[in-house]
Amino acid sequence: MKILIVGSGGREHALAWKLKQSPRGPRIFCAPGNAGTAEVGENIAIATSDFGALVRFAKQNRVDLTVVGPDDPLAAGVVDLFTTEGLRIFGPTKVAAQLESSKIFAKELMREQGIPTAHAGTFERSDDALRFCERTRFPIVIKADGLALGKGVIIAGDLAAARSIIDQMMNQDRFGEAGRRVLIEEFLRGTECSLHALVDGANYRLLQTARDHKRALDGDAGSNTGGMGAFSPANNWSAALEDQFHEKIMRPLLRGLQEKKITFRGLLYPGLMICADGARVLEFNCRFGDPETQAILPRMKSDLLPLLEATIDGKINSPEAKLIEWDQRPAVAVVLASGGYPGKYEMGKLISGLDEAAKLGGVHIFHAGTKRANGEILTAGGRVLAVTALGSTIETARARAYEAISRIHFEDCHYRRDIALSAIAANIGNSL
Ligand code: AMP
Ligand code: GLY
């Protein structure tokens, strides 16, 4: 069995690491991969955007299954192309991936199906958007319609800020084509939760919940990033919320897709805001979260490979796929980033202490922006590593993750010191 993983981040290392453990003993390729995936399998120097080369590689090497990590290739139709070429691939088609690649498409579908989400207006002209802002209450959230590396969502505190953001997005091409159309929506108050569902077209299975830390700095200050750390399970989730999630979000969503004759097969990750009146959808992602995957997969005891295959084959309800076994211990994943990320940062810094850190029990080190050169591991991106630890409690998991991090060094390393701290503070609060 041969598996090709498309991507080069921490999520892809976690997927490669997990799939490698399948009893079917797959050989793993990663395009283009990083220094971590090179330890699990073989890195192939093909960019995630070079679909022609990916198809050629998969055919020449008789790859049995390709798994797509990031959103861009999905939005650009990599699944459609592989399928046309008779190749097996995990991920939604281009039209289904619009749930993530067009926030306006997702919002309209939610509106049609009555799925709880923020009230929003959609705008194609900046003067219409501005007029709307003049009549609204602040803060508001301005979102570029298309994919913008997680940077296309900006909160405007007042009219002057809104004017400037709308001008940058709609008139000055700050996000290119992605920002020509915008959504302006109400600011929701609450706490966020990441859900992951394996959706096979008609049915789905939930994975364990997680919470991401999107801002760059402690105390949720600084810019939005791809994610600076995560923990699983989420401490703001409950059986009542899960019932509501099935009834008010997932079932209407699948019905809405069916009405549009769109079949979604892949991983659907709704980002939720847990508000006073229940869960509301902030966005839909059509792929595994990063760094949520690095916190979720170390807790999965079941083999991931048959679950991905059941998703592709429309059999996620089959008895084999039905029961996903989980390690009950919580996991905390902390991202180590290059100083300056998500803005400008330097690369090529020597990373030391990885072996020492890995010696700690219950610790997994997932690589993101790393590369191997002359036998050494160097930084090669904004997010460099995710250090995940499991523990009998969230406190011990957290302490172990930071203990491992204390053994890892590279110049200008930046990480948040407060990952999962809110979960611990909440536990203390509950026991008082
Ligand atoms: P999105 O890409 O739509 O998930 O937005 C990125 C981040 O912006 C989310 O994870 C939230 O932290 C924040 N955000 C998005 N929409 C809203 C909203 N309507 N109200 C408050 N915060 C939001
Ligand atoms: N952690 C946020 C994302 O994967 O989109």
Spell out the blueprint of helices and strands.
Blueprint: E1 2-7, H1 10-20, E2 27-32, H2 37-40, E3 42-43, H3 51-60, E4 65-68, H4 71-75, H5 78-84, E5 89-90, H6 98-101, H7 103-113, E6 120-123, H8 126-134, E7 140-144, E8 153-156, H9 159-171, E9 182-186, E10 191-194, E11 197-200, E12 204-206, E13 211-212, E14 215-217, E15 221-224, E16 229-232, H10 239-259, E17 265-275, E18 278-285, H11 292-296, H12 304-312, H13 319-322, E19 331-338, H14 354-358, E20 363-367, E21 370-373, E22 376-379, E23 383-390, H15 394-406, E24 413-414, H16 421-431
Parallel strand pairs: 1-2, 1-4, 2-3, 4-5
Antiparallel strand pairs: 6-9, 7-8, 7-9, 10-17, 11-12, 11-17, 13-16, 14-15, 16-19, 17-18, 19-23, 19-24, 20-23, 21-22
Helix pairs in contact: 7-10, 8-9
This protein binds adenosine monophosphate and glycine (GLY).
